[in-house]
Records
---
Amino acid sequence: MKHFDPLPHEMQPVIQSLELKAVLVVDDDKQLASALQWILADENFLVDLAFDGEEAMMKVKAHEYDAVICDLKMPKLRGDEFYLKAKEVRPTLADRFIFITGFAADPHIALFFNKHEVKYLVKPFSISVLIDCVKQLLC
């Protein structure tokens, strides 16, 4: 039996470690949330879903996320309320939210956006804009 010598150190292949970023997508529109999950996973993000603010709050307490993509108008706990509670539990998430809404012109929502200086996209938005926004947030 012939002995196999491993490659010298300088000839060994370089294995690049891929650091995956975890993103929580929160939207009561299950079809949209699932579509965003597939799109972001295709961009090498680890994606978790929640379909209302209460479920999202449980997930934020249990897991650490690098970013949150969140709808505003949802049952049980609205996106703005979830944001304020999540900020208390995980202060580092405060500047890692991207809100998605079809109601950006609503005065209460506009006031929330201005007061907290959060990032948001107005539905419908292009996928490339969302991906760019998430990547900018995480760089």
Note: The chain has a mean pLDDT of 89.
---
Amino acid sequence: MNLFVCIDDTDNFDSIGTGELLENMMGEAAVRGLAKAGFTVRYQLFIHEDIPYTSHNSSMCCTAETEDLSAFTVFCEKYLEENSADGSDPGLCILTDSPSLDYSALISFGKRAQNEVLTKDDAYKTAAEFGSGLHLSEHGGTGGGIIGALAGAALRAGREEGRIKGKLQPLPNKTDWTLSSFAAVYGVERFTDENGSEITDDLPLKFVHPTKLLYSCGRITSVIIKENGTYMPKPKIKKNKEKNQ
């Protein structure tokens, strides 16, 4: 069975981030033979004074495969209860990935969560209307993380754009890159410029700065910029974090 697994609001200022917690949880699930996970996508949700969050109000969602949904769900619930940070409000969403399911109402909820303040009641109502194929649960504190967990799973199901967790590092002593060789090494499926226009030519590439990938149009995407006549993956610029509660 294919799934989308999303968690939200599991951290505090001193803990590991929600994305790292999700990857740790899925790593433990793999060790136990409960599931195999795909890459994790970060979805930015609405920033507003009425929404409690640690630093950026984002949810984290990965894909997964399991042969025992019940055992996997129980494991995830217990893992969040035992490993989420003090003071957090963890939420879990496990959504079946199937072409036979209509995700339109869920996707609408996810997009609303990126632009307005929603409540737990909104999340539970949306989940109930979707019916079977969706698990939504809270695991500490106010349980408000279910809002972001449902939103993130919905956005991933809709193949909406998000940022793939982690960054790519240049390979030492390799300078003869092209878009096709970069794609082969790093699993990139699509290239665009900064305006979102797709690049199909096999351009020469200079890769000297770390970069991050996007999940866009349902594909792993690299944004390519042109600087001083040279094409390169858009560098990941380190920014100072501003923590807001």
Note: Helices lie at 18-31, 69-83, 104-113, 120-130, 145-157, 179-186.
---
Amino acid sequence: MQHPSTLPSIPAIDAVVLKLCQQTSLHNVWLPINSTAQMPSISVLAEIMQRLRAIVFPGYFGSSVSHRSVQYHLSANLDSVYHLLRDQIERSFIFLHAMEHNETPSDYREQADSSATALISQLPEIRDLLASDAQAAYEGDPAAISPGETIFCYPSLYAMVHHRISHVLYTQKIPLLPRIIQEMAHSHTGIDIHPGASIGSHFFIDHGTGVVIGETSIIGEHCQLYQGVTLGALSFPKNEDGTLTKGIARHPILGNNVTVYAGATILGRIHIGDHAVIGGNVWVTEDVPPHTHVIQGKSSKKC
């Protein structure tokens, strides 16, 4: 514990406060939302994701669920998700408006209601995709004893639950929330998937730590990545004023049934053909034809 004599004097504190309140200091760090508005809540979004996992995979997370109680269980969770999510979406729009216009708007409730309803309406399709991801993890890992084990234990499934949800919010152009939800999974698993990435069914990341999948990546069906794989951009075009150009397609496209082994780096808007295999620790910046093996230190070869 610090001795009282070593603490700053009150005048010293006042001087620091005055400096911190100067407009030049506040300009790039202060969010000008008035006292009636609130930022999105990370703890509430964590609760939303916990409830959505319980909806997608009944019985695995939270209370046990029987055939007789499953309808009640899903209905109660969905009701909570709807109200919590609608509020968080509304807050995210207020955040964006405040950042762009330096003021707080009066009402985004109708837009938030529509967006929350749209996500909930897609949950059956999201569940089907995640069930296919669990099956792919079971089939892709000889150590897995059942698809249920992959649902309950595997970082790939944890990351993909967050991605499938955040991707829907991203496509609806909901600000801030997709990144918060995805970063929850990134922090938990070490798997970094941008919410904008488009990923087909039966997707599995074995081990997972250090995987990076960029915003405009497109991944087909039945693909498998290993730890340390990067699907990134080769270069970053700039505008005339020197700022980075936003929204351009700059990440790889993987076809169906592509396998990418540990440590491989694939960069740029290139195409990796169906059934291609990218070996470990290789650097790929050109298109790879279908049914091709790319091996470190050797030329590509058809398989």
Note: The CA atoms of residues 19 and 35 lie 23 Å apart.
